[in-house]
Amino acid sequence: MSGDGNGERDRAEAVLPAQEPGGVREIPAPARTQAADASAGRPDAAAATGRGRRERPEPPRPDPWLLAGVFAAVYTALSLSRYRRMETMSWDLGIFEQAVKGYAHLHAPVADLKGPGFDELGDHFSPVVALIAPFYRAFPTTVTLLVAQALLFALSVVPVTRAAGLLLGRGGGLAIGAAYGLSWGVQRAVEFDFHEIAFAVPLLASSLAAVLLRRWTAAMLWALPLVLVKEDLGAAVAMIGAVVWLRAGQDTLRGAAGGGGVRPWALRLAAFGIVASAWEIGWLIPLLHGPGYDAFNHIDGDGTLTGHIPPVTALRTVLWVLLPAGGLLALRSPLLLVALPTLGWRFVSHYPENWGTAWHYNAVLMPVVFLAAVDCAAQVAAAAPGGRRAPQWLRAGARALPAAALGAAVALGTQLPVAGLTHLAAYRVDGGTQAAERALARIPDGATVEANVGPISRLVRRTTVYWVGQTGGRAPDYLAFENLSGWLTDPAGYALQLHPQARYATVADAGGYVVLRRE
């Protein structure tokens, strides 16, 4: 293998599995890296085999992109189905739409739902959502955010499928990619309206896939933007730096060239991640928030940082994260270090929503655990330096990983949100929802509105919306409440409690929604 002129890399002892119709075979790690470079569209990086000549590289397969296209359609259908049926789960969708709306008009990302004039960057540092602003300016609707999130999650399927295909074979790559796309963590996040972590998932997937393919520069560059997604992700960046440092060091010990030069940059990346999170949490967010900011409000309400999560809940969450992606096999990979900061802050939180498997909190863990499982399967299938092999039972488990992961995803999928798309009800808007839409349409454009969760996604685009009880002492033009459970028995009396200085009269009460106008 002297065709690329790099003698040191050709003498590397490390081996990794490569594609072969009948399973995996062993080739030197540098040669596998060259194959990965060729599949990425760089023919010059594809070296010849040991005969000292270059061979025509196989063109990159479209499999990852085709699979991502399928999931983009599925995720979009799920989000839009829920939106049409007014099944918004929380106020987060409205908050992010208000922020994106501000960016789209070249203003600060003000989220009036958190208080009149509140700068969203003073709560979570997520300037990355400004990337949606040009599209929102062209299509000013909540749907723009939902479609953007669906596309971002689908995009993360590409690096996962590609890396798995290069290391486990084409069939294995497709199986892992499909299992990842169907994973419960991603599905729950798609179901949860919109959240900024939609940007983190493809970045993490791309960075960790590059680690597996030993593309160190790409791995570190993909990690850098994570500090613009959310303030806690600087810790994940630091862990990616640690993983690159470890893996590059292993290559150096095996005699491969380049690892020694990478390690200082990996340490710089780790330091950058720590400093970025500390700066955002300790200075930037408090500055934008103003007086009364509590840096640990989202971690532990009593300030003790002791946490209140029951041990059985923590264990159940960890097992749910690991099992769909190969279970304990993934524990053999250092990539799991990247998951520790996210699990750490969630488990010391005093919010029970952070502890379990609902909502969007586990989406950022899915690319980590799936690629960790791929990493372990590849390492187990390969011979260690000196010809040592893993036990037969472990190699059998590694070979079965793609099929097992896909089978688990399909089995669990019957109880997950995407399964709802198989029912005709997902595509129908009932009469009650239509009546609720007409009731909210009574509110004119440009009005100020105080609302609970239900009406928000229909009003943010064209009105100024405040959360119930957070109007800053203002009496808005309208009140709009979702009342499907019948909790609001006296609309006028409730309005009087909220605003004793004003009088409101009901103008619409239909489909489980009540609209009142200030007289």
Can you give me a brief rundown of this structure?
This protein has helices spanning 7-10, 29-39, 63-84, 92-104, 133-138, 142-155, 157-168, 170-181, 184-191, 197-212, 216-223, 234-253, 259-289, 311-322, 340-347, 366-381, 392-413, 431-440, 453-459, 491-498; strands spanning 15-20, 23-28, 448-451, 464-467, 478-482, 504-510, 513-518.
Give the uncertain stretches in residue-range form: 1-55
In order across it, which strands form the biggest sheet? Answer: 4-3-5-7-6
Percent in strands:
5-15%
Outline, from the CA principal axes?
A: globular
Described by strand count, sense and barrel closure, the largest sheet is: 5 strands, mixed
For the termini, the CA-CA separation is: 84 Å
| H/E topology pattern | HEEHHHHHHHHHHHHHHHHHEHEEHEE
- Cα-based radius of gyration, to the nearest Å: 26 Å
Number of DSSP helical runs: 20
Number of strands: 7
Spell out the key features of this protein:
single chain; 519 residues; alpha/beta; 2 domains; 5-stranded mixed beta sheet; two-stranded antiparallel ribbon; 20 helices; 7 strands
